[in-house]
Amino acid sequence: MTLYRDFGEEFPDLPRPESVYARLDTVEPDPLVSEESELVFLDAIHADFIDHENISRRSIEEDMFDELVSILELRGASAWDFVSNRKEPNGSIWFKIVFGQGDVEVLQYLNLFAGGIERRAQARMCDASTSKRLDDLLSLDDYPDADVDDIGIAIDVLGDIGAAVYDVGQGNCNAIVNDQGQPLLYYDFGGGVIGHSSTYRTGLSQFCFSQTPAIVMSHWDWDHWSSALRIRSNTHRAARGPVYSDAMKATWIVPRQNKSLGAVHRGFLAKLSSVLVWPTSLKSVMNGPVTIHKCLGPVSNRNHSGLAMTHHPRWAVGDGVLFTGDCDYKYLPPSCSTTSGFESVIVTHHGGPVSPTSTIPMPVGSSSYCRLCYSFGAGNTYGHPVRATMTKHHGVGWSATDERNTDNRSTMANGHSSGHIILSPTSTPTGSTRCGLRYCDTGYTQK
Question: pTM for the full model?
Fold first, then answer.
């Protein structure tokens, strides 16, 4: 495979397309340039494949498709000029981009886990028929809505005692865990990719799947699912070919976000063994201490229209633990909070900008155990966590002593450094792997 395969240090020289069809994927602030500047990312598929092949959704399931998708990055003031006449971010506009022409510099990522290639390019908007063809090809329409009972079964966490926030660099991976620190249910399974690949923790080799946990995907951003492709056992080397981890075989609960999915997302979806697509009209599903909530943001924006999660372990006061993904607090549904605050919150969007202080969830005042967790990679180009965001959280009652950061790395029993966080006031030890599996890497260094 190419885009989806972690080649490690043996990265090959991949073929470069002459042209691609690309859709606006995400927009991020670019503080390295200026406060007003933005980074623009596009999800791309080789134009020759679309123009000359009799393709269908079945074509996406073939390994050859992996060589036909890429990611484009545009930086600086000219980024928006390149995609002129755009609609709102994550909108359904397609461009045909021709390389070797024009005067705009583009970074093209041919692999999720490697650096980009500088290329010169020009773009034009696609006609309506081409855009519709691409939308139809990449939608989730061939995936039926999941049965509510199946979702409820998948999120069973019998024996839970707390939660975990894993150090995956500039990305997100959380879990509900048992008294051995073993994950019972993951919330996101991502990590630092493309320009932030270097933020991923060195030596992280294998997550624990001893309890066959399902995975809830908050939304379809690459840094929230990509670690399912990069994690492989220490017994394998990249040169031996692709190794599908237990994560690829797990049951995934994913939001239906047709309006913002591109070729990269659809190609990943085709590789999963078991997928439950959240019904658009379903507001929430509860099983014991866990509830999955549908976020209320506009469908054109992936961050705010995905899935949030709450967990209420036996020791928790108030509303327990809040998992947000990248959803701004103002788009969380009322069902997320029924009392006066939370024991723990995993801060939205890696500590990026948030809406007014009035929307930020408060800590439970009577609790002796409060944790405010930031999942981000040191040295990320977005400036996460943003100082103003941290200050706003302090303004509703969280203190600096409540904060835990995944970049706060210390040495584990296996000799590697980690910023893994466990959220539980019980005596679960830190700094060691509790699962008993030889290659499991879920030890914790923070509480």
Answer: 0.93
